[in-house]
Amino acid sequence: MSASPLAAARAPLARPVRHHRGGHRVTLTPSGAARARFVARAASPLDDVRAGDLISLDFGDDDDAKETRRLIAREWLLEVTETTETPASVRGICRGRAFLLDGTSMRLTPAPEPSQPNLASEPWVQRAYPEWHALLERLEVDGRYPAPTATAIAAALPNGGVVTTGGVRKITSYDELKARVAAEPGFWRDGTPPRAPPMTVHEHATLNAGEILATLRGHRGVVMCQLWAGWEDSDDSDSNVHVVQPVDAPFVTRALRDAALDALTDGTIGIRCVPIAGMDPAKGLTALVHASASPFADRAKHLASFGAQAALVAGSPYYQLLVGRILGYEARNIEAHVAEKGGALTPAIVTEVAKDLAALGGGSAPTIPWREAYGPSADDLDEAGRASAFGAASVGDEGDGKR
Q1: Which of 54, 140, 141, 370 is the least crowded, having the fewest Cβ atoms under 10 Å away?
Q2: d(Cα 198, Cα 182) in Å, to the nearest integer?
Q3: pLDDT at position 29, please?
Q4: What's residue 378's pLDDT?
């Protein structure tokens, strides 16, 4: 995103003008005394940033170093949770931790520790994802969550954490992502086509959230989301700030919270938390978010029965086909995936999977889309509404950097 031209702007009023969630700016009519305090200032690169935006920050990273990281960690992506106009600044979430970006110095610094996100304390996590809540509490006691710390991430930022000139670029916003998923769901619904070009950093960054939103919009019946990847954890998570838990990808927790609202209010969405079969949830825990209608709920239950994980590849062509069919991927994309993993779909495997799917949900065929609009979003609720929906006052106050 390029900076705006120089323009006259208001001096700070008695208190900063803040914009939460939807990011709509408010026109203020200052008093005569305030008008007398008007001063000209240079426009900030953050003037056009709104709460709910996803922005990419360029600190001048070495390109060769970036190529050694996983796709999700090749850019510094900030999910904006609050903007302040005077002076221009933003708060947001980067790799699961809260930061402040000052519009004058353009330096990214950790938000105060009391305002750091802590999903273990969120009522919506406790009520809709109880197994995840229990795991996070245990990991917190063990010192493995939350990690890495915002301080460790900030220390690893190139250029002393100062964004380079022209280094702020808007990628999308939560509302824009929802609209695109509703209108063109294929990327988040159909699976990866054969010979598809590699995903870009930005496509990969919004893949998980988009798949959840495709389910909430009715374009999918079942989706998996990795809540905890134990293989990404280590005794000293601060030692590698470029290791990102899948759930810390942009907008994922926001989409999971919207799924929780659906599940806890009208029950059109169901949620299951599934560990790897026979293993401690600390090794791996996946959320199955699904339509409550048949046959989707039965198919999600079947995935749970053998501990399917979002971030682990199913081990045989039979299970790869079964999981792909339950997740609603196109047949040619499933076949290409199986072939890529060195397998083949024989007529016997195809017949067996079809028979097993027919036995789920009373044999009813899935109907997609299963509904025609999104349900309500937690972003649209005030504090009282969130308390009513989630059973307690949520600490998800964007003003404090929490989710």
Answers
A1: 141
A2: 23
A3: 38
A4: 94
Greatest Cα pair distance, the chain, in angstroms, is 82
- Residue 279, both tokens: 């293993």
Mind listing the pLDDT tens digit for each residue in 45-87?
Answer: 999 999 999 999 999 988 888 888 888 889 999 999 999 987 8
Phi-psi domain of 70 (left: phi exceeds 0; alpha: psi -120 through 50; beta: other): beta
Query: H/E element holding 339?
Result: helix 331-340
Across 4-8, 20-24, 243-247, 278-282, the highest mean pLDDT is recorded for 278-282
Q: Which of 27-36, 186-195, 215-224 has the lowest mean pLDDT?
A: 27-36
pLDDT range class, residue 239, cuts 50, 70, 90: low
Q: Name the one residue in this structure whose structure tokens are 């917190």.
A: 140
What distances in angstroms separate CA 194 from CA 323, 328, 329, one per listed residue?
18, 16, 12
Separation between Cα atoms, residue 102 and residue 100, nearest integer Å:
6
DSSP state of 107: B
Cα–Cα dist 162/245, whole Å: 25
* Spatial CB neighbours of 286, under 8 Å, sequence gap ≥ 6: 224, 225, 226, 227, 273, 274, 275, 308, 309, 310, 311
| Residue appearing with tokens 């399917």 | 308
Q: pTM of the entire structure?
A: 0.86
| pLDDT band per the 50, 70, 90 thresholds, residue 153 | very high
354-370: b or e for each residue (b if 16 or more CB lie within 10 Å)? eeebeebbeeeebebbb
* CA-to-CA separations, 366 to 97, 320, 327, 360, in angstroms, rounded: 39, 19, 11, 11
DSSP state of 373: S
Distance CA 44, CA 4 (A): 7
Q: Is the pLDDT of residue 128 over 70?
A: yes
**Separation CA 199–CA 221 (nearest Å):** 24
In degrees, rounded to 5, the angle at the alpha carbon of residue 69 between the alpha carbons of residues 95 and 75 is 50
**Cα(269)–Cα(325) distance, rounded to whole angstroms?**
19
**How many C-alpha atoms does 274 have within 13 Å on its Cβ side?**
25
* 3 has pLDDT over 70: no
Peptide bond before 117: cis, by omega within 30 degrees of 0? Answer: no
